[in-house]
Each structure stands twice: as structure tokens, then as C-alpha cells.
Amino acid sequence: MKKLILGLLWMVCVPLMVAAQNTTESYCMMRAIEAAQGDDYNTAFEYLSKELDANPKNGFAHMWTAIACVRSDRYGWALQYAQSALKFLPKKAKEGRAQMNILLADLYSEAKDTAQAITYLEQALREDPQEPYPYRQLFLFSQNKGDKEAMLRQAQAAVTNVTENRDMDMLMIDALVENERQDEAFAYCDKVLSQCEPKSKEASRFLTQRALMRVKNKQPHEALSDLMQATRIDIWDVSEDVLEQLDDTIPTVVRDTLLAAHAQEPDKLFWKIYLYDSYRHTNEYGKAVEAGFAMLPQYNSAHLIHYIASVLESYIGDVELSERMLIKQLGVDSTSAATYLNLEDLYAETGRYKEAFAMADKALSFDPSPSEKANIYQLRGRIYEIQREYEKAVEDFMAGMISDPRDYEYWFRIGKLYGMMNEPDKQAQAFDQGRKAFAADGKELSPEAYVATGDSARAYEAAQTMIHKENSAGEQYNAACVYAQIGHPQEALEHLKKAFECGFRHFYHIAWDMDLDSLRGMKEFDEMVNEYKQRAELEKQELRSKIDTELNY
Question: Could you give the 3-state DSSP secondary structure of residue 284?
């Protein structure tokens, strides 16, 4: 449901203006609006309640109450007040009525009632056909269903009714590509580019989109040219997705081109950023760290330098220096939830659980994003699981799922814990909820989900599919964990070795990860881990001679 709150950030401003212009300026309404604009929702509710007691048919009061309910996580009440707002708002308040329909659509979407969500989105467009949000959401619903024709119809309606809106133009391009009308997609993209300011962010965005289209159209050299042109316009709009696909398509050409460009313009920051991303995508973490540190002195967000350095250090497994960089970062910004989250992760990895809990509490106190909050709870739940405090682990995994309801893995983690607690009914319910969530999103269960439910055969097949899609350190390690749990130790060792070859260096994680317990005591396992530990240490020593890891600038 937290996704809804972020989605509403864009929509709150319009109802505020609509309400301010159309509301009878009673004392209670003026005080409620003032409180809501200052995020003081308790005071807003107090005055809105008084207003509704005096005038129960004030549609604007119902609208404000619905918004305040969403902003303070009272979703059931939000549903009721939004419906009441639609009943009492005057017909001429079309923008406000449209926004209430959108709010209801988001609520029903989060409740997995897609049909009802679509009904409210369509009603929103009848109220205000120039509002872009419903078009985008209807497009996404059709995309999830694989209905390409509906995507195209919705994109065409969007660009017709919402003119000069680049998001709608992007929908049109995506729809044409999905319907395999490549020539039209290129023509439309070129048309939009011709209307953009030559060196604007919009131009960079559509050049990047055209680069992605060129990759899919098997034009890698042209794609690289577009991507480089986009970067020259907007250095911070580097598309890692396109670069990764280019690295997969023509890795030698991409690397040689980037190195040549860097040699020609060694002071240009964007070549260093591209090289850094390219090395990460090809699992060359030592080179990525070297390139990353080389770009930091020019990085224009100086307040993030130590945070980024800590991430670079984590790539090569230097826990001590990564911690030092994070602590330096707190000296620059002591209110960053992300920094405390990274420290929580580091302390959890190294078995310093008391410190990890302290960092989790700090992170939660500084308004983390929904994804950050989910990670905070997941890490804490994992520690409780290791400590066999299963009830507390369940509580934290549930909190993580509320923060990130689209991570369906939580149901299977929770079900696994209920099994350890000898509560088969709750376990079955959790697994059933997880299966339904995956099915509702049109996805197959993950390898880890199959492992949790005891379906070893499907876990094996899903793990094979996973590593065929992505040969990354993380996916190879996850495959090793799956194979270790379903009784395939040799294949687990094989994929653990591949994870190391791809740059996996989290040796502390390996030391406590219960998924690998079946491998412990095996001579091959111990020898492999020790061998790659020694290699990692040599890599760190070599890097130390090349880079300024202390960041004394």
C-alpha cells in the first residue's frame, strides 16, 4: 500500500487547488486545509469532522478527508470518504471528481481488484480526459495482461487528449514497439525528438529510448551512438539497462569504444561513469571499483561521495573500509535512512546483530522510502530467524511485505517460519497467499518459493531458468543456495564457483547463510571458499596501490 502513497504525491496538489477555489470558506475548512498542507493530519481530521457534522453534504470536506486518510495510512476510511466525495461534489468540480476516481482506482488496484480499478480510471477520464495518470495506469494494466491492441488504443487516446506530454508520447512509442510496428515507432520517436529542444532532458530521454529500440532492432552500433549522444546532453541520465544490453550484444565493441572515448577526453566524467557501469555489468568488480573511485573527485554530489565509496568497497568485499566510509557519510548527513540501512546490512552480514538492530531503528526514524523500509524489516527479520526468534521474524517479514506488497517472496519466508514453529495451518495459509499473489501478477513461483513449499523438482527447473536469464554473481549465488537445499551438492558447488568468478565477495554472508548448511564440512566447499578469500585479498591489495580509498577531498 505504500506504493499508493508515492503515487498520490503527484495528485494531492490538484485537489488542494480545486478545494481552495471551490470550498465555502468556513472557519473549519480553512483550518483543516491549513493543517493538511502542513501534514498535520490529526488537526485536519478534527476540523474536517466538525465541518461534516455541520454540513454532511460538503463534498470538498469529504474529498479532503479522503486525501488525509490516505496520507495517514487509513485506507479503509479513505475508500468511504472518496466514495462520499463523488456523491456530494458538484458536477462542475470535474478535476476534483477525477482525482477521487483515481484515488479509488489506486485503492482497488492495491487490493488486486483490477476490474474495479479500471472502472474508476475510465470514470476519471470521463470527468477529465486531459488527466494523464489514468491513461498510464490503463496502459500498464493492458501491458500486464499482454493485450497489445488495448495498449495501442490507450496510447492513441492519450496522445490525442493530452497533447505535448512526453510521458504520453513514450506510451505511444512503447505501444508501437509492442505491436511490432518498428518503423512507425522510429518515425514517431524521430518526430518527438524534432520537437524537443536539442540539448534538453527530454531530448536525452528520447535518444535513450531510441537506443533501446535500436538494440531490439539489432542495430547495436547505432544504439551506442544514440546512447552517447544522450549522455552528452544529460550526464545523469545514463541508461544502465541499454548499456547492459549492449554489453551482452557487442561487449568488445562497447568496451573498446568507451575506452577510446575516455582516452580522447580523459577529463569527461560521463566516460568514467559509463566505464564504471560497463565493468559492473560484466562482473569485473575490481575494474569497476577503480573506475568508480576515479570518477568521485569530479562527482558533483559531494554530500554522497562517501556513501558511493562504501558501495564500491562492498563490491570487492572490503567490509572494514566500507564501514569507515559509511560512518564518514553520517558525518556529512546524519539523517540519511539509506546510510543507516547500509550499516544495518553490513553489521548483519558480519554478525554484529546488536549494532544492526540499532541501525535499523535509526533508519526507521528518518522516513525511509517504501523499498528502504522493506529492506530494513527484511534484514531485521533475517537476524531474528538466525537467532531462532521466529515470532519476531514473522512480524518483521509482515512489516516488510506491507512496505513492499509486490515482493511476494515474503509469504514463503513467513510460511517457512510457521513450519519451524509447528503451525501447519498458518503455514498452508501463507503459502496459499503467496501462490495467489504470484498468479495474480502472471508470474511463476521463484526457485526459493518452490524450495519453501518442498517442491524440489520445480525448484531445480526454476533455478535453471533463472541463471539462463542472467549470469550475475547474485543469481549464481542464489542458484547455489537452491541446489544446496534440494540435495544437489555438486551443482551447488559449481554455481557457487561461478558466483565467485562473477565477483561475489560476501564471505561473511557465506559463513552464516543457513541455505548452504548442507555444504559445510565438505572438503571441496572449504577449499573453494578459502581459495577465493585469498584471491579477494590480493585483489584488494592491488587496488589499494591504484586508488585513493580514504577520499581526503
Answer: coil
Which carries the bigger pLDDT value, residue 281 or residue 483? 483
146-155, pLDDT tens digit by residue? 899 999 999 9
Reported for 126-131, long-range contacts at CB under 8 A and 24+ positions apart, including other chains, are: 127/94, 127/95, 127/97, 127/98, 127/101, 128/94, 128/95, 128/97, 128/98, 129/161, 130/161, 130/162, 131/95, 131/98, 131/102, 131/162
- Cβ atoms of residues 309 and 550 within 8 Å: no
Q: Which fold has domain 1-128?
A: 1.25.40
Listed in sequence order, the residues at least 6 apart from 185 whose beta carbon sits closer than 8 Å to its beta carbon are: 173, 176, 177, 213
Are residues 536 and 317 in contact, defined by beta-carbon separation less than 8 angstroms? yes
3-state secondary structure 526-552: HHHHHHHHHHHHHHHHHHHCCCCCCCC
Domain locations in the chain as residue ranges: 1-128
DSSP helix, strand, coil percent of the chain (3-state; round to 5) = 80, 0, 20
Q: Render pLDDT for 16-46 as a digit per residue (tens, 0 to 9).
A: 444 444 445 688 888 888 887 788 888 989 9
Give CA–CA dist 531/525, Å, rounded.
Answer: 10
| Cell numbers for 354 | 546488536
Average pLDDT for residues 516-539, to the nearest whole number?
A: 93
Amino acid identity at 33: I
Q: What is the pLDDT of residue 10?
A: 36
Sign of the alpha-carbon dihedral angle for 413, 414, 419, 424: negative
Question: In this predicted structure, what is the pLDDT of residue 216?
Answer: 86
In whole angstroms, give the CA distance from residue 346 to residue 351. Answer: 9
State how far the Cα of 447 lies from the Cα of 411, in Å rounded to an integer: 14
Pairwise CA distance, residues 206 & 20, whole Å: 37
How far apart are the C-alpha atoms of 523 and 507, rounded to whole Å? 17
- Is 166 exposed, middle or buried, given 0-12, 13-18 or 19+ CB atoms closer than 10 A? middle
Q: Give every CB contact of residue 308 below 8 A, 6+ residues apart in sequence.
A: 292, 296, 299
The string of pLDDT tens digits covering residues 442-483 is 889 999 999 999 999 999 999 999 888 777 888 999 999 999
Determine the Cα–Cα distance for residues 62 and 438; give it in Å rounded to an integer. 36
**Dist. CA 32–CA 246, nearest whole Å:** 54
CA–CA dist 340, 326 (Å, integer)? 8
Report the alpha-carbon distance of residue 228 to residue 223 in Å, rounded. 9
Using the predicted structure, report yes or no on whether residue 4 has a pLDDT greater than 80. no
Residue 463 CA to residue 496 CA, distance in Å, equals 13
